[in-house]
Amino acid sequence: MSTGPTPTHHRSRTATFAAAAVLAVAAPLAAAGPAVADPNFPSTEGETNTASIASYDDLVAELQRLEDTARFGVDVQTLAEVGTAVSTSESGRDLYVATVGEGPEAVWLQGRIHGNEPYGTESLLAVLKELGTNGSPDWTLLRDTYTFHVIPMYNPDGSELNIRHTILQDGSNSRIDLNRDWGVGKFAAAESEAFYEYWTMVDPAFAVDIHHQGLKREYGTGDDVTLSLGISLAPGGPTLPGVEGGAYDVLTRQMHVHVYDELAKYGYVNMDRYQVGGSLEIDIKGGVVSAMMLGLDHDGLNPEGHSNPAIFFETSGNTSDGSLGQKARGKSIKQNVVALQELLTGMATGEVQQEDPARWDEIPHAPVTGYQTDTGVIPVP
Ligand SMILES: [Zn+2]
């Protein structure tokens, strides 16, 4: 999703206090935290310098370094080494996954399925470093509870080209959105076949996918949004309440309510709910995280119908729009890392599962007018 650039916006003192008040109402703990800083961190000016963004070679080098130096056993593999039938990108690049942790449940963390949305890679490499090196109680709990399967760069071809898609190498040069390619009659791209088969090997308990969107303003306040919280099958929408007896409709909301409460304590983060077209909830079936929740059985590889809840994050700023903002780089990555740490720890302790799912409604969003599905818009009845 890209909302396009908006003019540079200098927040007034009034707006800052209004934002603080909103956060305080939604999350009383925020009132005792640090003052709310200006969340307008993605730059709206100038060109994005992609030289500072992790390249495929950077990814491979950093994964190797983490495997060599981690205290707690980071295992880096290509899908060729794992043994999936299709194991490289369309252009023949190796596809990488890193695993860490010894817990009984698997967790799937992926980033940069859209090649022009870069910081999923940096964010997941940062999380992987903590998982591999941090001996504090939180990270120890995570390693003891889960085995993490981390895919920092799902789409290396698109990443190298700084485009959303991958490009088919069958002579057609067709551009494929990999996040619309896990569906019946789809799987046009090699990356989809490869990572889908790996998913059927892992059978994760839950998954998180990291994206970027263009610059966005919060509905009602006009404040700049730094992070949107997304569920690709809309809670309470046409699809999710009918999946697994409604269990994922509840748990995905609890996951984001927890992230919202925890990150509201950080002054530089301003969150809302991910929406498209201003007021539509997304309800697409071909997204990777959607297909996971639907338990898609492609090529007979998932005959038992494994499914898992899955959510996504959207950091503001986009390389294609030139709105990424170099000054924002550290904060953009940091908010993803903190969001993941809070989510994962909350899942491991059971705090997430105790959240009130109805509080999804408290996360800022425009009044919902309909659902954006694969085949068009369904108005809210
Ligand atoms: Zn995306």
Automatic annotation (TrEMBL):
Any one GO biological process: proteolysis
Protein name: Tat (Twin-arginine translocation) pathway signal sequence
Domain Peptidase M14: 52-381
Primary location group: secreted
UniProt signal peptide: 1-37
Highest classification ranks of the organism: Bacteria, Bacillati, Actinomycetota, Actinomycetes, Micrococcales
Compartments where located: Secreted
Keyword Signal: yes
Organism, scientific name: Agromyces binzhouensis
Any Gene Ontology CC annotation: extracellular space
